[in-house]
Write a structure and sequence with these properties.
Distance between the termini: 52 Å
Shape: globular
CATH superfamily of the largest domain: Type I PLP-dependent aspartate aminotransferase-like (Major domain)
Number of helices: 13
Number of strands: 12
CATH class of the largest domain: Alpha Beta
Protein name: Aminotransferase
Largest sheet: 7 strands, mixed
Helix content: 25-40%
Strand content: 5-15%
Family: Belongs to the class-I pyridoxal-phosphate-dependent aminotransferase family.
Keywords: Aminotransferase, Pyridoxal phosphate, Transferase
Number of domains: 2
Radius of gyration: 21 Å
CATH topology of the largest domain: Aspartate Aminotransferase, domain 2
Catalytic activity: L-aspartate + 2-oxoglutarate = oxaloacetate + L-glutamate
Low-confidence stretches: none
EC number: 2.6.1.-
CATH architecture of the largest domain: 3-Layer(aba) Sandwich
Strand order of the largest sheet: 2-8-7-6-5-3-4
Mean pLDDT: 96
Length: 400
């Protein structure tokens, strides 16, 4: 009898974490490495949020809270959804978890039965398919390409839906492509979903506030109120407020689903960190200046990276609407030979050779379900990005 669960054979470790760890190991060994794999802002958490956490510690707010979030934080989340998204939720429709990832995982664990299918537009965040597999469901990728700016169309969505489809996981702006869907594009997709009442929508709105003019963010239940009763609108403080390590995610949705997710959480992690919840409360209710300030920096970095990568031999890099990633296509480099003599047959080959030759760590596109591409995170300094892109240009130019 095997000791480890059979379900583990269905999943693989996170490629983004693996790349980040490899870059750290090479740096520790003395190699000059620039890591462009990490999916987190390089800015510090705003001071007023840190102050709220310190005050919570001093006030003794170090005990258990309600399993799925303290009441005052749930109330603030309700206010946030109403203020920014035009969505009305009551506290009983809100869940707070240890990061956005746990929100998604709880929802899948609470709803998946064997044979259930979950539609996932590709490229996708690396964890989506594996979470579906762990929950006993079947991930079904909806393939896109650079020709559609890595976005699905109503026709692609409609063709992918079957009687077994339970969820569509929808991420805009996207990790890894940064692609954001306009209201008009969203309306086309929600019109399709209205024809299929058995399909629920799980949105991942984590990059809501990292968007660049003239793009304006919208979420599916906001665009089509008819989807409200079968949408789980997921978000968190990680990206918007540079709070990745604080681990607070949240969602609003139908009360029965939220209650079921709470049951999962009650028997796994129980409540999120009490101090982190107080910090998240300060983030949502306090000054919002940081969001606009960081957006200016991210947009400047985006424009720098897109410009330099499009000057690299064989790369095509779309200009994303949001997040802090670009997703260049390297089709023209497949079949070329690296200075080491290695033939570039896949985007993983490209990423490995780039790391070995130039010391730049990126994540290969196959990990996100769309090849041949790679992801660059531009959540680092302008100077570092300029150097990294110069190295990528040099490497691409060296391929024969």
């Amino acid at each position: 009898m095997a000791f480890l669960a059979d379900s583990l054979a269905r999943v693989k470790p996170s490629a983004t974490i693996a790349v980040t760890n490899k870059a750290r190991e090479l740096k520790a060994a003395g190699k000059d490495v620039i890591g462009l794999g990490a999916g987190e802002p390089d800015f510090d958490t705003p001071d007023h949020i840190k102050a709220a956490a310190k005050a919570a510690i001093d006030a003794g707010e170090t005990k258990y809270t309600a399993v799925d979030g303290m009441p005052e934080l749930k109330a603030a989340i309700c206010e946030k959804f109403a203020r920014e998204n035009g969505l009305t939720y009551t506290p009983s429709q809100i869940t707070v978890s240890t990061g956005g990832k746990q929100v998604l995982y709880n929802a899948l664990m609470a709803t998946m039965n064997p044979g259930d299918e979950v539609l996932i537009p590709a490229p996708y965040w690396v964890s989506y398919p594996d979470m579906v597999l762990l929950a006993g469901g079947e991930p079904v990728a909806i393939d896109t390409s650079i020709d559609t700016d890595f976005k699905i169309t109503p026709e692609l969505l409609d063709a992918a839906i079957t009687p077994k489809t339970k969820w569509l996981i929808f991420n805009s702006p996207s990790n890894p492509s940064g692609a954001g869907y306009t209201r008009e594009e969203l309306k086309g997709l929600t019109d399709v979903l209205m024809k299929h009442p058995h399909v629920w929508v799980m949105t991942d709105d984590m990059y809501e506030h990292i968007v660049y003019p003239p793009f304006e963010f919208a979420t599916p239940a906001q665009v089509e109120p008819g989807l409200y009763d079968r949408t789980l609108t997921c978000n968190g403080v990680s990206k918007a407020y540079a709070m990745t390590g604080w681990r607070i995610g949240y969602a609003g949705g139908p009360e029965a689903l939220i209650k079921a997710m709470g049951k999962i959480q009650s028997q796994s992690t129980s409540n999120p960190c009490s101090i982190s919840q107080h910090a998240a409360l300060a983030a949502l209710t306090g000054p919002q200046d940081y969001i606009a300030e960081s957006r200016v920096a991210f947009q400047r970095r985006r424009d720098l990276v897109v410009s330099m990568l499009n000057q690299a031999t064989g790369l095509k890099c779309p200009t994303p609407e949001g997040a802090f990633y670009v997703y260049p296509d390297l089709s023209a480099l497949i079949g070329k030979t690296a200075p080491s003599g290695k033939v570039i047959e896949t985007d993983e080959d490209f990423a490995n050779e780039l790391l070995e030759v130039e010391g730049v760590a990126v994540v290969f596109g196959a990990a996100f379900g769309a090849s041949p591409c790679f992801r660059v995170s531009y959540a680092t300094s302008d100077k570092t990005l300029e150097e990294a892109c110069s190295r990528i240009q040099r490497f691409c130019g060296s391929l024969k």
